[in-house]
Amino acid sequence: MNINMTIIGQLIAFIIFVMICMKYIWPVLIETLTERQQKIAEGLEASDLAKRDLEKAQQTANETIKSSKLQAADIIDQANKRANQIIDEAKVNAQTEGDRIKVMAQAEIEQETNRAKEALRGQVATLAVAGAEKILGASIDMAHHQKIVDKLATEL
Amino acid sequence: MASETMTSSEYISHHLTNLTYGNHPELGWKIAETAKEISDMGFMAINVDSMLWSLILGSLFLWLFSRVARKATAGIPGGLQNFIEMVIEFIDDNVKSVFAHKNNLIAPLALTIFVWVFLMNTMDLIPVDWIPYLSSLLGVHYMKVVPTTDLNITLALALGVFALILFYSIKQKGITGFLAELSLQPLGKWALPFNLFLELVGLLAKPISLALRLFGNMYAGEMIFILIALMPFWSQWLLSVPWALFHILIIFLQAFIFMVLTVVYLAMAYDHH
User: Fold this and answer.
1) Burial letters for B212-249: b for 16+ Cβ neighbours within 10 Å, e otherwise?
2) Does the ipTM exceed 0.95?
């Protein structure tokens, strides 16, 4: 086992290798690792953020659904109320219309009756006079007996 | 065994001899053929095999990591990038837990040490005869494939770290602050020589313990593999498999310890105490 110039050769090689490693290898690889670390940290942060956003969105969605349900119930309620109201109104309208029609019909009937009565009354007078003429066999002075005939007619 | 004509001790020493190219005092620049020639060469020699495998494995590390770094994406990583990132994060966590200051060098330094030492240790798991046998076919007589079983390699790494310890100590505390730290504690200024001795021993123990711990562990592990390889071929698996499994732990642990202690020493260099 001799100490010889190998020691110098190895020392020179050692210095050169360390310098190359220091200049071209270590910084590059460490930078890569740091970069990846940063990337991962950013990724985790982003996923955190996304999770929070999702939670928020879910909350808003839930709230919206709740309020929509309330609104829907409200609308249905109102609609029912309105429907009842419309039915009621329709009923009332129908009633009044029916009443009006009935009244009108009655009035018409009355009118017709009266007209018939009037017509009958005129004819009755004529018939009575004709009858009486036939009975008496003589013409009756119309002017003379007009009063009696009219009286008769009104009594009918 | 590599060859039937070798004795056990020849086999062992063959496996523990580096392929050395150096300046022999009598024969000039040449590849050493015996251990005697290697020791004659002294300092003016280079262990070609250790150097070669160390450079190959270091380049493999740089190639693999720079390939991933070039194509790295902050999106979903592929299989290889995933694995590399796991290593990077492992190192980064360890460095951050020990070293509190801002420094662009420490983490890449720790990464380089950890992966490089780990790869060099891993060569120990390749069966001890494969690569030496292949290289002997190519006419290369010695081939020691685990660079961390060469004290030169581990000591070079430790000295690099030691230089950084001195550099950061002086940079953070100033030359006077550093000297004061070495001489004025633990016993105050009246025991200055004693303090200085104690602290210097402590300071020098850092690189030496770093180098010797790694070297010793890997050398011993390699030695055991070589001893197991001396057994009859049909019974080797009985020992080599459990030892290899256990050694997986050791190669990782030694790389990890070297890396962590480096960071700890540098953190101590930064801190005032």
Assistant:
1) bbbbebbbebbebbbebbeeeeeeeeeebeeebeebee
2) no
**Which of these is catalytic: B50, B54, B169, B217?**
B217
CB B107 within 8 A of CB B92: yes
Closest partner residue to A33 among B66, B89, B116, by Cβ?
B89
For the segment B151-202, what is each residue's pLDDT rounded down to a tens digit? 999 999 999 999 999 999 999 989 988 888 888 877 877 888 888 999 999 9
A 34-93: CB under 8 A from B: 35-36, 39
H or E element, residue B24: strand B20-24
**Catalytic annotation present for B217:** yes
Collapsing DSSP to helix, strand or coil, A41 comes out as helix
Q: Rounded to 10 degrees, what is the CA torsion of B56, B29, B36, B3?
A: 50
| Torsion, Cα of A7, A12, A13, A15 (10° steps) | 120
List pLDDT tens digits, range A3-50.
Answer: 888 999 999 999 999 999 999 999 999 999 999 999 999 999 999 999
Q: What is the pTM of this model?
A: 0.76
CA dihedral of B257, B263, B269, B273, whole degrees rounded to 10: -80
Q: How far apart are CA B64 and CA B201, in angstroms?
A: 39
Amino acid at B59: S
H helix or E strand, kind and range, residue B131? helix B130-137
Phi and psi at residue B25, to the nearest 5°: -55, -30
Residue B108 pLDDT grade (very low, low, confident, very high; cuts 50, 70, 90) = very high
User: Could you tell me if residue B77 is left (phi over 0), alpha (psi between -120 and 50 degrees) or otherwise beta?
Assistant: beta
Chain A residues with CB under 8 Å of B20 CB are 2, 4
Do residues A44 and B188 make contact, with C-beta atoms less than 8 angstroms apart? no
Task: Look at A7 and B44 and tell me if their CB atoms are within 8 Å.
Answer: no
